[in-house]
Amino acid sequence: MSISKFKESADYIQSRTNVKPSIGIILGTGLGGLVKEINIIDEIDYKDIPHFPVSTVKGHSGKLIFGELGGKKVVAMQGRFHFYEGYTMKEVTFPVRVMKFLEIERLFVSNASGGVNPDFEIGEIMIIDDHIDLFPAHPLNGKNIDELGPRFPDMMHTYDANMIALAKEIAAENDIKVSTGTYAGLTGPTLETPAEYKYIRAIGSDAVGMSTVPEVIVARHMGIPCFAVSIVTDLGVPGVIQETTHEDVIAVANRQEPKMTIIMRELISRV
Predict the structure, then answer these.
(1) H or E element in which residue 248 lies
(2) Would you call 25 helix, strand, or coil by DSSP?
(3) What does the pLDDT look like over 168-223, one tens digit per residue?
(4) CATH number, domain at 126?
(5) Which of 93, 165, 169, 228 is surrounded by the most beta carbons within 10 Å?
(6) SS3 for 111?
(7) 114 within 8 A of 209, measured Cβ to Cβ
(8) Domain containing 68: what range?
(9) Which tens digit of pLDDT belongs to each residue from 110-125?
């Protein structure tokens, strides 16, 4: 993926809106309700943006939303891209590269996940403080573009500690129960087997999903601070595992989304 494509996409977007976003937002499955909180100024369909992929998953609308949230100018992806859709990692993370050329200063990410921590319950809101990359491909494979970031970016502080601390304060102020934990990123689209859930827990994860990790890696490669939150929509804990459908995931995410929205909105307003 050449740097010229990122610039062409960004140039097109800038020709369609006068909004200069400082915050980038990626909304996960069933979590698009945050858009309702945005004072929307412009919307651009993914299909109209040069080189942009198009979302194929139910619950992902496929638009870039430009506007104001919490007193900040924002660009929000209403719908993201996944490796399991057949996209390469370069394509999955393409919008994050473009956001950098739109000059965002921070990235906020949400997702729905399966919980493997036995202390979790369905609907748990987990602020991600670390991740384990179990994808079979890496978004930084191939020739490094030095203009974007270093060949060997350090991932010691992948998720911004100050934003995590502030998000926990906001949750307490609003009587919202939150946890912090490690998120494991897997390909999907199958949900995990009971043995896979046990493995994921054994290697140190609290939740597992099919997104977020590639996007955050690319953001950190470019020096963008990241905050991510996951809503646990089903449990992969021995003794309580149940068959789960995509509709089940969306239903739980929709139920907890207003709480996540409060945290994200207030955090954006305070950073």
Answers:
(1) helix 246-270
(2) strand
(3) 999 999 999 999 999 999 999 999 999 999 999 999 999 999 999 999 999 999 99
(4) 3.40.50.1580
(5) 228
(6) strand
(7) yes
(8) 3-270
(9) 999 999 999 999 999 9
Largest CA-CA distance found in the chain, in angstroms, rounded = 54
Residues 259/261/263/265 CA torsion (nearest 10 deg):
-150
- Supply 161's token pair: 């500690």
CA distance 116 to 184: 10
Give the Cα separation of 26 and 22 in Å (integer).
14
Q: How many structural domains compose the chain?
A: 1
Q: What is the DSSP letter of 46?
A: G
For residue 179, what are the β-bridge partners? 126
Percentage above 90 pLDDT, the chain: 83
| Cα–Cα distances in angstroms (integers) from residue 117 to residues 167, 184, 202, 237, 242, in the given order | 21, 12, 10, 7, 15
Exposed e or buried b per residue across 197-213, where buried means at least 16 C-beta atoms within 10 angstroms of its C-beta: bebbbeeebbbbbbbbb
- Identify any residues that bridge with 232 across adjacent strands, giving them in sequence order: 113
Whether the link from the prior residue into 189 is cis, omega within 30° of 0, is: yes
Helix 3-16 × helix 94-101 angle, to 10°: 60
pLDDT band of 252, cuts 50, 70, 90: confident
Sequence-ordered list of residues with C-beta below 8 angstroms from that of 14, at least 6 positions apart, any chain: 102
For the chain, what's the residue count?
271
Q: Hey, is 90 helix, strand or coil?
A: helix
